[in-house]
Design brief:
Elements (H helix, E strand, L loop, with lengths): L6 E2 L18 E3 L15 E3 L2 E3 L6 E3 L1 E2 L2 H4 L12 H16 L9 E5 L7 H6 L3 E5 L3 H9 L4 E2 L5 H11 L2 E7 L8 H11 E12 L1 H7 L11 E2 L2 H9 L3 E9 L5 E8 L7 H12 L6 H26 L4 E4 L3 H10 L9 E2 L17 E2 L1 H5 L5 E4 L5 H7 L1 H5 L3 E4 L5 E3 L1
Bound molecules: S-adenosyl-L-homocysteine (SAH), thymidine-5'-phosphate and zinc ion.
Length: 415
């Protein structure tokens, strides 16, 4: 791969209107690109600059690294590491079975970005015909080992046609935390239209722009997340392809997400929730570039406060350890200038990340035992989106006097 393999735009990826960056998060590495010290010299960086399209309301980064740099046979994110997410997808699948799929004869279910089978496993168990589209072969292998049908390819209009030829049209399609990854969203929407039955339903969920702006959770923005969606922008994308936004449902997952339900235009009634959400978004200024200027000021204040706090603790000689080597934390460490001088190591339960350095900031990543066997004074909660699960698990850390450093929605210390 060459240095020029960025997916760079000057015009909106959805509607082609000219767009401009409203801020820069500086040079950023691949968010899930955990590396060995031998790989540091060749580490890849790009400038991460978000922009907002005033015409179609799509929030996007101007330059995204090539997909092959992010999704490959050593992809570091395994969905099933979180028990909460397992329960979330079991519930999501059950709802789809009881609503969309009820009464259908031998329905066919397709998931985009099916990873290790966290969602599709629920359909497999109940004997549904299913197919996962998962380009990162290592995570897809985990799904295949569980008997979940998975193909390791990027979803595209051409692949949609091949799937139709081999398996027929889909009754239900889902995608979680992947639609916002794919720069050719028009191609993906066209592929969904091709693959769905005329009365088929596509449900997808991703981090929500409304939540990100409200909480200043700028760490939702990283290389994989080329888009941060709102109901306004999602409606605009799918309307271009004969598809309609028929329902929305907020989710607490990943720090505030939205589930969007899409159907061929006119095939299903549109829920009142759609109009309500669109009105709420307009009220919040999610159709207005001025909102991004406020967001930028909030990001800068958050960065300055977090770095000041970590500098103070360093001067006081306190031990600070990161909790969860999340992809989001790559944006935080690199934007704020946080390094091993502030954070001794990051504790993470994912074996592929352990023994490596965090992207860009080069903070060592260690197994959970390194944290649990020798509690630090402070744990910097990088996995803040899993706070409920973690706080429940770590009562002995706080009982021993340990404190949490948080930065969403505000920088602070919690015991
Ligand atoms: N759905 C899972 C995984 C999200 S991570 C969950 O919510 O936990 C995003 C996944 O999408 C990765 O496994 C990645 O390999 C996959 N992916 C990236 N681009 C894709 C594309 N164009 N088509 C299908 N899957 C894609
Ligand atoms: P995510 O925010 O992208 O879901 O990634 C969460 C990361 O945090 C993942 O690498 C696993 C790690 N993690 C822990 O180390 N301990 C935990 O208790 C949880 C919930 C996650
Ligand atoms: Zn646009």
């Amino acid at each position: 791969m060459t240095k020029n393999d960025l997916n760079s735009v000057r015009n909106c990826r959805v509607c082609d209107a000219p767009i401009e960056a409203f801020m820069s998060f500086g040079q950023q590495p691949i968010a899930n690109g955990f590396l060995t010290s031998a790989q540091v010299a060749d580490e890849y960086f790009y400038e991460m600059k978000p922009a907002f399209c005033a015409r179609c309301c799509m929030f996007q980064i101007m330059d995204q690294p090539a997909a092959e740099r992010m999704f490959h046979g050593e992809y570091a994110f395994f969905s099933s590491t979180s028990r909460y997410m397992q329960a979330h997808f079991a519930k999501f699948a059950k709802e789809a079975m009881e609503t969309v799929l009820a009464g259908r004869a031998d329905p066919f279910v397709v998931e985009l970005g099916s990873n290790d089978g966290i969602m599709l496993g629920n359909f497999k168990e109940k004997g549904f015909r299913h197919l996962g589209v998962e380009p990162s072969s290592n995570v897809a292998d985990v799904a295949r080992a569980k008997g979940i049908n998975s193909i390791s390819e990027f979803f595209s209009p051409a692949l949609a046609e091949r799937i139709v030829a081999q398996h027929g049209h889909a009754d239900f399609m889902s995608a979680a935390n992947v639609m916002c990854h794919i720069p050719d969203i028009n191609g993906i929407a066209a592929g969904v239209k091709t693959l769905l039955k005329p009365d088929g339903v596509f449900m997808f969920e991703d981090p929500y722009l409304g939540a990100m702006v409200e909480k200043t959770s700028y760490d939702q923005i990283y290389d994989e997340h080329v888009f941060i969606f709102s109901a306004l922008s999602v409606q605009n994308v799918f309307a271009r392809h004969g598809l309609e936004l028929v329902d929305v449902a907020p989710q607490i997952t990943h720090g505030g997400s939205m589930r969007y339900t899409i159907s061929p235009k006119g095939a299903r009634p549109v829920s009142d929730c759609v109009a309500k959400q669109l009105a709420w978004e307009r009220g919040q200024g999610l159709d207005n570039p001025a909102t991004c200027d406020r967001f930028r000021a909030n990001c800068e204040a958050s960065r300055d406060q977090l770095l000041t706090l970590l500098e103070k603790l360093r001067q006081e000689g306190k031990r600070v350890v990161g909790y969860g080597a999340t992809s989001k934390s790559t944006t935080v460490t690199n934007y704020c200038g946080i390094g091993p001088q502030h954070v001794e190591f990051i504790s993470d339960t994912t074996p592929i990340k352990q023994g490596k350095l965090s992207p860009g900031a080069h903070i060592p990543v260690k197994p959970y035992a390194a944290f649990a066997d020798n509690y630090p004074d402070y744990a910097l909660l990088f996995a803040w989106n899993h706070a409920a699960e973690i706080r429940e698990k770590e009562t002995s850390f706080t009982a021993a006097g340990g404190k949490w450093i948080v930065y969403v929605p505000k920088v602070g210390i919690e015991s």
